[in-house]
Design brief:
Layout lengths: L9 E4 L9 H14 L6 H6 L5 H12 L5 H18 L7 H10 L3 E5 L4 H8 L9 E3 L12 H10 L6 E5 L2 H10 L2 E4 L20 E3 L15
Parallel strand pairs: 1-2, 1-4, 2-3, 4-5, 5-6
Helix pairs in contact: 1-4, 3-4, 4-6
Length: about 230
């Protein structure tokens, strides 16, 4: 006999690369900052930062890009650039808004769990219908960001649900590891960087990670099979 398919009590959404395709904005900002400070940047460096805590990214850029500024100053420079771009165009990921709307229509709780800081995530939230998310957790609200479990644990706590009752939607291995470490089930939809299939075989992921190519055509009741 198979176990019954049970809907999650909450859906926890990553933002960059999952809800919106803003990774190119961040990557362009990294190149601009590093090159304006006389350093050299590569796409391999950029890929290494996908899904990472912003202060960790700032320290990485300082060390590898030769930017002699504090990690916090580098983050603020990044945010200045990506906020400017998002105000001109919000590049939504295919199927994301449709699934988010469907999840809300059937009454599931929702949280935004992003390593972007609040002044950037607020720009994205302002472009969604009011009440799309019950709560949000941003990178400047946690001491330890992804891949640590803290962001997802805080989101579940704010919603008043157990992490095991949640499905997290992620696009990066960093975010996926964070959600799995918190005890969530995870729907991984890789975009700019792969989520290795081997990750599903790690002890913390067995039976709790589903990989999919796209959110297009996915309805809220499909989350019962995650």
């Amino acid at each position: 006999m198979t176990e019954p398919r049970v809907l999650p009590r909450a859906v926890l959404w990553d933002m960059d690369g999952t809800l919106v395709d803003t990774e190119p904005y961040w990557i362009a900002a990294e190149f601009d900052i590093v090159e304006s400070h006389g350093g050299t940047w590569t796409h391999d460096h950029a890929k290494a930062l996908v899904g990472a805590d912003l202060l960790d990214a700032g320290e990485y850029i300082r060390r590898h890009g030769g930017v002699e500024r504090s990690p916090h100053e580098i983050v603020e420079m990044l945010l200045d650039r990506v906020v400017e771009k998002i105000r001109l165009d919000v590049p939504w990921r295919p199927g994301a808004r449709e699934l988010l709307r469907g999840v809300r229509e059937i009454g599931l709780a929702t949280a935004l769990v992003t390593m972007s800081w609040k002044r950037f995530s607020d720009e994205v939230l302002a472009c969604l219908p009011a009440g799309s998310f019950h709560v949000s957790v941003t990178g400047d609200e946690v001491d330890r960001g992804k891949p640590h479990p803290d962001p997802y644990l805080l989101a579940a706590e704010r919603l008043g649900v157990a992490p095991a009752e949640c499905v997290a939607i992620e696009d990066s291995p960093t975010g996926t590891r964070s959600a799995l470490a918190a005890g969530c089930r995870v729907l991984g939809v890789p975009h700019h960087v792969d989520i290795p299939a081997s990750l599903a075989d790690e002890p913390s992921a067995i039976g709790r990670l589903t990989l999919r190519d796209s959110l297009v055509g996915l309805g809220p009741h499909d989350l019962a099979g995650i």
